[in-house]
Write a structure and sequence with these properties.
The protein contains 19 helices and 14 strands. The protein is α/β, with parallel strands linked by helices.
């Protein structure tokens, strides 16, 4: 038994934020029916290269454990089919621009009237409330990272702002939608009623600012790009070694004493008044860097890692994606999972990052082909017979692979 195996999710979302959310729901047993446009499908089916056996690796990375239902929402019968499924669902997830589904007759107020228990989760760039000139805008990760302040903090001092190496605004909004759905499901157990979960990509980026926002609230100043340095902890950054790069995280004064005495073999440095406390080290980080950088650069990474590990000082190399995925602990935690796809053949996906001791999530099925489950789903959920399905297919309302 999986913890969400009694939950039916009707997933109208596409691209990244919504599918990432519904993938995690599916991992824990929710039945996720993924609505796609006939003939085209989710936009990410065309994202590439790379492709594997004609399948987009982008799509494959976030759509496991789902069933694909291809219905044309622009067709009146398609909308009626979608409405009928929503009437049976526990959760509807969508990431259209606000107002789009209202115009199609599938907005929250309409669906709440036919299914009062429905959790209707919306992800958008700027939310369903607030200033109309923003709620109407599309949400794109690159734009929202900039508007949310995150890009202003990413990169080297004096150089251009940088986005994160993954689409963090999309992914975080997917996480927040996941939280909202689970909280709303819990609330429904007590009230018997569903509700609207409204998640904004911009809100998610603002929430991520945490201590950087705290610095601004306290000082009135703008935190600036510091590369891999931490604004409030030192030494806590990336150092060049003789043969690469190394992250060293001296997160408190006890670690500083171990670092100075056991790694650098310089007990006097630990007692230097410029560095004896974290506050002093932050205030004197330039002087500290002038001492540490040439020392660390003189030896290879392996030399330092051995000493840092022995001293109990957190540290680690900077791996490539390939190296990270092959790390023994990643393998031991089953964070890379092999699957067999009908057209792509053998593929690998990332694993389930949340471990439950009694009802763990699982990666069970490969991402679906476009419309792979259309006929079976409509037969099961809506009791449509073969003749009706044939007519719907002939009229272009549905498609099936």
């Amino acid at each position: 038994m999986l913890p969400l195996d009694d939950i039916l999710v009707f997933d109208l979302s596409r691209v990244l934020s919504g599918p990432y959310c519904s993938m995690h729901l599916a991992d824990f047993g929710a039945r996720v029916v993924k609505l796609e446009k006939p003939g085209e499908g989710d936009d990410t089916r065309a994202f590439g290269p790379p492709f594997v056996g004609g399948e987009s690796t982008y799509f494959l990375s976030i759509n496991r454990n789902k069933e694909s239902l291809a219905i044309d929402l622009k067709h009146p019968e398609g909308r009626e089919l979608a409405l009928s499924i929503a009437a049976k669902a526990d959760v509807l997830l969508e990431n259209f621009r606000p107002g789009t589904l209202d115009r199609l007759g599938l907005g929250y107020e309409r669906l709440r009237a036919v299914n009062p228990r429905l959790i209707y989760a919306s992800i958008s760039g700027f939310g369903h409330t607030g200033l109309p000139e923003y709620t109407a805008r599309p949400g794109y990760d690159l734009v929202v990272q900039g508007l949310g302040g995150l890009a202003s903090l990413t990169g080297e001092p004096g150089r251009q702002p940088l986005k994160c190496g993954v689409s963090i605004a999309d992914l975080v909004s997917g996480f927040y939608a996941l939280i909202g759905i689970l909280v709303a499901l819990h609330a429904r157990q007590r009230t018997g009623r569903g509700q609207h979960v409204d998640v904004s990509m911009l809100d998610g980026q603002i929430a991520l600012l945490t201590y950087q926002a705290g610095i601004h609230f306290a000082t009135g100043k703008n935190p600036s790009r510091m590369g891999n340095r931490h604004p409030s902890i030192a030494p806590y950054e990336t150092y060049r070694t003789d043969d690469g790069w190394l992250n060293i995280a001296v997160g408190n004064d006890a670690l500083w004493r171990s670092f100075a005495a056991k790694v650098l073999k310089d007990p006097a440095l630990a007692a230097d008044p410029r560095f004896v406390t974290n506050s002093a080290r932050v205030e004197n980080r330039e002087s500290l860097g002038a001492l540490l950088e040439p020392l660390i650069a003189a030896r290879p990474s392996a030399f330092w890692l051995e000493k840092l590990d022995a001293a109990g000082v957190p540290a680690g190399p900077i791996y490539s994606v390939a190296e990270a995925l092959a790390h023994p602990q990643v393998v031991a935690r089953e964070m890379v999972v092999p699957l067999e796809h009908q057209t792509a053949g053998p593929i690998r996906v990332t694993g389930v990052p949340v471990r439950l001791s009694e009802t763990p999530g699982t990666v069970r099925t490969a991402p679906p082909r476009l419309g792979e489950h259309t006929r079976a789903l409509l037969e099961e959920l809506l009791q449509l017979d073969g003749a009706r399905l044939d007519r719907l297919a002939a009229d272009g309302v549905i498609s099936a692979s």
